[in-house]
Task: inverse folding
């Protein structure tokens, strides 16, 4: 459970006004003194993330947020951070203190959740000091399931967990990354180039996750670098069922792997697993319409120190400018940063998104669609500029 990446956990975010009892609630759910609790309004500043297991859901991430009604210049920054959490929320827990009245702030959270199709459950906290009749009526009038909670004694926490289990989205992630493309005892080859950007002594997260998913599907997996690929293929009595490569090696690997052997990449598998492969494919058309000077946004979900071979800072700009035949105006964002105003960009190029959850990727795609800004991911874009896109998406066509 502890080794499960946060990006593939169900994200449960606790929202509410200042002093609604959100931090006490997360401490009660986890049975740990995780969040700082104080009678002073606005104690929570940045969102607090806590990983835990809720049976039978499995690994989840709980998120404690700052009060949605925070005030002042600093308060506005806290609220902005809180609103960013909505993009990654799979289930929203709206907390209202029993001694307060639901107001426009609570309604605003509910409206945002409904707009994003995020399921909502309610908590009426601090029932040791008030009965919470108004909050009860407010939730019941909106048909929102809720639990009455005393976080100090953990009264109502078991019922809250039952509600969480019952109302959690069952398909917040596809069941498999690659398992539906292979069968028991199939041989697949994973091509994992080792360049200056590769982490020392380990594989990168998408490679590890595809490897584990293939093993869970009962496949026999070979892991090689690109220059050992030919020897691996020659040593097999029969062709592999599938070859999965790093997208950066498409040009080399596609020439080594026979045309009748299915070929794809980690990034393209993640385009389907974390986002919407069809939407990324639709975005390809925009590459042919780019002109020198156009603005292009490159979104990297992880933070790292760029190397001289960096995929997002060096290689993708080089490929795109080679296709355009001139200089483009690139902007880079990392982590959870994503511009509110996308209208100035002619294209968004997104990474494989191994470090953020599917809800956040889909929220970004929705924002791009709303503003009619085309978006592709690394693997799809590289497949296109290297001329192998049709081949590398074919294994996923079903």
Result:
């Amino acid at each position: 459970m502890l080794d499960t990446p946060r990006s593939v956990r169900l994200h449960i975010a606790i929202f509410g006004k200042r002093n609604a009892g959100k931090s006490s609630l997360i401490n009660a759910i986890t049975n740990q003194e995780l969040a700082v609790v104080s009678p002073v309004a606005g104690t929570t500043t940045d969102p607090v993330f806590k990983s835990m297991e809720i049976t039978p859901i499995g690994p989840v991430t709980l998120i404690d947020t700052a009060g949605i009604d925070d005030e002042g210049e600093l308060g506005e920054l806290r609220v902005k951070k809180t609103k960013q959490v909505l993009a990654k929320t799979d289930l929203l827990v709206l907390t209202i203190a029993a001694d307060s009245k639901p107001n426009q702030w609570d309604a605003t959270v509910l409206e945002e959740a409904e707009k994003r199709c995020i399921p909502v459950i309610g908590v009426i906290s601090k029932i040791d000091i008030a009965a919470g009749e108004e909050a009860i009526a407010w939730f019941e009038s909106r048909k929102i399931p809720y639990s009455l909670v005393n976080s100090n004694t953990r009264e109502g926490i078991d019922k809250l967990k039952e509600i969480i289990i019952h109302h959690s989205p069952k398909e917040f992630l596809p069941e498999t990354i690659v398992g539906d493309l292979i069968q028991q005892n199939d041989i697949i080859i994973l091509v994992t180039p080792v360049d200056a950007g590769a982490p020392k002594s380990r594989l990168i997260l998408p490679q590890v996750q595809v490897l584990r998913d293939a093993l869970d599907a009962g496949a026999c997996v070979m892991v090689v670098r690109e220059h050992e690929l030919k020897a691996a293929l020659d040593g097999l009595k029969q062709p592999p069922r599938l070859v999965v490569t790093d997208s950066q090696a498409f040009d080399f690997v596609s020439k080594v792997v026979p045309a009748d052997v299915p070929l794809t990449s980690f990034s393209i598998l993640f385009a389907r697993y974390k986002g919407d492969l069809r939407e990324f494919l639709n975005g390809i058309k925009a590459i042919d319409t780019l002109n020198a000077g156009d603005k292009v946004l490159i979104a990297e979900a992880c933070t790292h120190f760029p190397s001289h071979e960096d995929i997002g800072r060096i290689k993708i700009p080089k490929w795109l400018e080679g296709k355009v035949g001139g200089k483009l105006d690139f902007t880079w964002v990392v982590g959870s940063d994503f511009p509110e105003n996308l209208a100035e960009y002619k294209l968004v190029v997104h990474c494989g998104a191994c470090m953020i959850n599917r809800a956040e990727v889909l929220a970004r795609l929705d924002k791009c669609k709303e503003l009619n800004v085309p978006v592709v991911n690394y693997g799809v874009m590289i497949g296109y500029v290297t001329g192998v896109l049709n081949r590398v998406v074919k294994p996923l066509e079903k």
Notes: The mean pLDDT is 91. The chain has 14 helices and 14 strands.
